[in-house]
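Troubleshooting entry. Yesterday's outputs looked truncated, so today I'm pasting the complete records for two proteins to confirm everything comes through intact. If either block looks cut off, that's the bug. Protein one:
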Amino acid sequence: MAEEFRFHVEMETERLVRESGLLPAEARRRALIAFGSVEEHKEELRGDRGAAWLGHDIIRDVRAAWRSLWRTPTFTITTCVILAIGIGTNAAVLGVIDAAFFRPLPVPQPSSIIAIFSTQGHGSHRAARLEPNSFADYAAIRQPVRGIEGLAAYRMASLTFEDAAGGANLWAALVSGTYFGVLHVDAQRGRVIREDDERMGSAGLAVVISDAMWKERFGASDTAIGTRVLIERRPYIIVGVAPKGFTGTHPEGRTDLWVPYSSGVMISGSAVNLENHAARVAAIIGRLRPGATLSQAQASLDNLSREFRIRFPESDSTLGLVAVHHARLVIPEESPGALTSFLLVWMMVLLVHLVACSNVAMLVVARAAAKRHELGIRLCLGASRGRIIWQSLVESGILALLGAIGGTVLAQWMIQLVTRMQFLSAFNIGLDWRILAIVVSVTVLTALQFGLWPARSAAREDPLVLLGGTSGGRVKGGRDRSVSVILVAQVAVCLVLCANAAFVVHGFQVQTTTDPGFDLRHVLVASIRPNRTTSSDWLSAHDQALERARAMPGVLQASSAVGAPLYHAAEPQRIAIPGRVRAAEEQMTFLAQRVGPGYFSTLGVSMASGREFTTSDRGSGKADEFDVVVINQLLARRLWPAGDAVGQLIGLERGAPARVIGIAADVLDVSASAAQPRLYLPLLESRRGPFEILMRINGDPKSMTSVIRAALSSSSSAPVQVTTMTDIHDGATSLARVAGLGLTACSAIALLLVSIGLYGTVSGWVSTRKSEIGVRLALGAPASHVHALVLGSVFRLLAMGGVLGLLASVGLARIERSWLGPFFSFEPLPIVVAIIPLVLSAGIAAFIPSLRAVKTNPATVLRGN
């Protein structure tokens, strides 16, 4: 092509010399003007040749783009790191959401798996809160139900596990013998739990271990099958290994053990739960028959609900049974706020990614401004504007590809880190093709976002202006309007993140400093699971442990309870007031906790009136029949708003009405967010199940943890776990703490990115106005005037972004209040705390370039232009 073009130019030159009598040099100049740009003709001919040159052009463009990026390593590395962080965090969070809510259970035909819940208030059970069922109800409905192929029950528990490698507390599922059969899951080694394993006291109690545990503790050896282990100090035999990837059907943690339900509740001291219809602690799952629908199964369950309300009026008088699909690990009907919580986290991460992408866009704009002279030369030499845009897109595509590769590696690392957390360990998190497709889509959109716009903007300008190196633009001229819009959006997003982080941290501080209603500082809690089967044996173990605790040096007071404050130990209790007609909408089911004598004084809970339980409150010894109760102030105001509750009668689910002997002060509930109406029942009437010994310590409780554990373990054959009440409180507030840390990290990253963006943008503005600043300084303008000129433009953008960010923060705060509880509130102090670092960082980012500008010698600047 070069030879052909040169031939045409020479022919035209000869014609002009011959016909017009021009000198050869002048004739050649006119021939070149008439012929036009050689490079432009080359590009047109290459385009006409089609696909023949396409591969060659792409390879050439990629090489040219790589050489250009290699010459600016700081820009290239910074851009790739920013993109990797944004893409990687988004892919990791999307992986968690996908594993929890969209990926099917790792079982055959997961779409036919259902879960059956109970509700209180059968008339509107589809809108009521879903609760677990009792094992007794499961036993009553396990016969074939129309539309359901099979049913199974399970319950989660933390059990002590001991083998040759040592002991550990593991998350176990107490399952019925039909559990694995209903799921159509078979063992990869050995066998699964069968129905004959359910028989109480059967020789050689069976246990199935998870694939992860098989590899971690047994090195994936086949010799694990048949190994004898101790679970809660009872002998078990490992009969099988669950298939790889099967972590159970419970979303709150990876299941390591599966033991028969009957033997499991026996070793945990809760064998009575097998026959108690009111003990709603079991989850029921089932599988629909081929061709059956959920509505057919629900019709059968409605008939069973009516039958149970007649057969078991004491416990199931308002029972409703609800069937929902359980094809995914997390059931939306059971945890309606879970998806919202995960989406809020993803939204925060997505906002950081948007800030990162916009920051990269400004870096590309700044780089394009630095390459203005080069673009002008290319345009003057004949490069088409489409070619300029294409070359910029190739550079952006390489950056996006490198960012996607780094983001994928980062996402894999973050997923490995996330799966180590107990509450996410049940999720089979991974980057499957759907997540990778999202990453690729984000990468393509990112490339288009920060590659197309600056290239088109530069390609539209006059090549002579580009060669001049400046356009005479102002700090806030029309040419910079798009950059200003990006900065305003960045400031708004950053303020949303900072404000919400401040809200959560402020709420966490309020939550941790709010009086819980009892003394946290000097209380130890020892959890004991006695291996007793009769009430007399249980009472003996209880009294022995309590006496041993009271005899320990440094123990001022000791009491017992089923669960300490902030524990998940309360159980729902339906009550009635004798002689009072209950309104249809009146709530009469409240939380009940079993406590021993001296419980309130040991914890430092004040009694508003009446007295607490004493050793004489043992009653007749009949299970779940109580003569006296204590209630808290909230329940007293709810039931007797106009009078004293002490001495009143409360009808419980079993036995004669119990008399209220005391009103205790309110204490915070499990989430440490608010107190709830609560009954307290005498523990010594129960005489079954695990219990806690609570001790008030003279001094630091942590220093006595090991001593107390050794003393109670030596005096009892039951497993003992000792912790401080402060640690329990920290666990109850862990959600707010984790949310605060996560949002603070997102806010810090966004703040850093905004600062970098402001610095780069203001530096570019100062460079484009260098001559104007030089003229102002030469004419005697003070340095403060230049500072005001630059900072004023920045703070105007900061104010616009701040207004938008505040409006968005208010709307988001309303959503998050329902998620994080009453301690999350929209208050002025967190807003001020969020605005101050944003203003300071923006001021520093803008002041440094302005300081550099005022130190410039005006004469040097004017001579350079």
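Protein two, checking that the full record survives here as well:
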Amino acid sequence: MVASALTCRPPAPLSVGQFRRIAERGFGDGRNSYAYCYAWFRDHLYIGTNRDLLVLLKQRFRFEVPLAIWPVPVPEKIDPQDLCAEIWRYAPASGEWERVFKSGLVTGRENRTVPLAAGFRNMAVFQGRSDPAPAIYTIPSCGSNGQGVVLMRCADGETFEVVSEPGMGLGNDNITSFRGVIAFKGRLFATPSGSRGANPNVSHHAAILCSDDPASGRWEVANPLSFGDPTNLSIHDMAVCGGWLYAGTMNVAEGFQVWKTDAEGDPPFHWTRVLDHGAERGPFNQVVVSMCEFRGDLYVGSGIQNGGHDRIHNVGPAAGEVIRVRPDDSWELCVGDARWTRHGLRAPASGMGPGWDNPFAGYIWRMVEHDGCLYVGTFDSSTFLPFAQIDPHAAQLLDPATIQRFMQVRGGAELWRTSDGVRWTAVTRNGFGNHFNYGIRALVSSPYGLFVGTANPFGPQVAVRYPGGFRYEDNPRGGIEVWHGAPRDGVVGDAAPLSIDLTRQRIRMAGLTHAESRGAVRRIPGCAPGRVGAASPASRPRPVLDAPLVFDHATGAGADDYLWDPLLRLALSKELSDGGASVEQELAEYFGGPLRNAGLWLNSTDTPASASAALVTEVVALLSESPAPGAAALLIAGRGLAGLVPLVRRARPADRLTALALDALSREDAAHVAEHAEIRRGKPSRFTLPKARYDAIVWIEGPAVGDRRETLRRLACGLRPGGVLAAAELLVEAIEVVGGRTGAPGGDPIGAFRSDLESAGFEIGRVLDVTSDGWLRMFRHSRLYFALRLLMHQIDHELHDAALAALPGGREAVAAHVLVCARKKGA
């Protein structure tokens, strides 16, 4: 521990702005799901992993989770090599990670090839009687088909060796994993907590084993089995506090129990019961998930297995509690439900309910004291909301856009801190800005700061909801993350998002003094308000963010303007315009390329380029749902053909590809398009197509412009009977001036578009309204972006207005944004 509770100096609490991410994407492999165990040894951090947790959960566990789609793809058969657990080591002095162990394969039950270690769930530093020096001890999980648990030891910090036979000589082949391993009074204590038959949390007898020389294979039972109560199914965690060893049980019938011993004499030791009946909350406090000593008291974190809802025993859902046990065995409720007990009323000292008033916090998963504060991390089931089956009535409130915004602000695990157990402060409430971090699984105090490892089983691929349904895509935020918290001048590692008040954000100007840079937001040298700067491109200053911007997730500050983070990064990364700036240059910079449409702003989309590509991908995906034949001859039309044609070709290969150019193409763009497709030219509503030439047409924002019915008729003429039109459309209404007031007429724009499609000879398959996630998001994003450009004097008012008019939708009254899949009638 870095700072003892007896030191005189005040606590040095950490906020989210003092954390930096030092590992991501499962150490480069998204199959590494949890920072499952941890140790501090020889000035290094050690992290043990498990693998493909959600795949195993779907294939092997005995209950179903009601989801619209499973979050990750599940293969029919799992390659055993993919399940081999790993151990990683981090050197804070150099900032380097190294994998020091990867499990090999062995022959398990029924001659199956299985990993020796399917997951590392525990680690402890201990020196046994035969050890020349302290070493890391760990007992990896072997899985239901494994050959049996083994004891592993690392004495030199680099080499992990097996120092026991399978089964560890315990005479019980049913045990598949251990959870708690801790050193106390010259012995290593370990608790079995998993058994065959896909029971990762239940050993069916709450036993504690101990040994003063683990490598010798001599283990003794340290407690009466199940403490004399057969409803105690296992022991999840242990802690040392005030000269006592504490153990917490799992009890699905009546709620957890907490026991303590001084471990004097020979085992089995004498144990005293401290808590029972889940601190009188009953089964809602099913299991002690975590325990930690802080300022002389024992803090206990509760939970319900399987994420806060035990579907096997029908317990929950409910959030966990934090309970403080005094040295005299009296107890107080810090965070939880107020209730009457045998000892009178127990109300939470913090005034906060279970899970700090978060119903998704199913576990109080990890605790650690660091530098005078207690840090507590949770498991949060809100991460599953984007994949949940939503009741039709609830869907009116929990539409995809609302769920997405909630996930950005409050999705993912929470980390809290306290200096007294009463006043609590959130360090992060959204998994450090990544809602796939659904758990804080590792907390390690070190001389270098606090290390936080996450549980994140949403990689390498994850299901992404689009208007047309879910698709599995690569997930750049899936897999274990490790964060390092330390005072600013002590941080090692790459920069990570900080929580900074927008009004206090510092902007560093290249070539300016600190005093000059204080006025940089209001005025940039060489630029006067209302005109474009005259400085030459080589000499003009460029604004650079001192740190990436995000809103404060702990307090929620800035949550209503979550788009400002990517907007500022985008707008302030541009060079100042010179006198030759044009609308075309502005659009090229805004969209980041030739692909220019309103886009689909889903999930983590935060740039026009990614939104535009997402829209095209979704339109092409509609073709696969059509009963029409494959697109042997495909026509493509829309804004930015130079970007559109290659993207469609990759997503939907065709024998013959034609690009319909309705706007002027530059020579460079025309050459680029010609590499992939034949070019056919025309003008909106005045083009012609060869009769019955094409099997499919992909049209991005076009038919609604001009004479829509005539455009749709011409498209139908070019399709063969049964051919498919897949399109993205901005449905525009004419502006009427009535009584001196300007406004758009009422009506049903989507219904009118359906009618036009049918009149043109189409049979409608799907019409999806994506207005809220499409054009409205682009409208807001683009207006804020160009407003920032104007505010920074990077463009003038004239260029600002012209750029807005040239965007998709321009100055028109856009009534709806839809995706369409329609088939030409006929055999």
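Both blocks look complete. Sanity check on protein two: The first strand starts at residue 19 and ends at 23.
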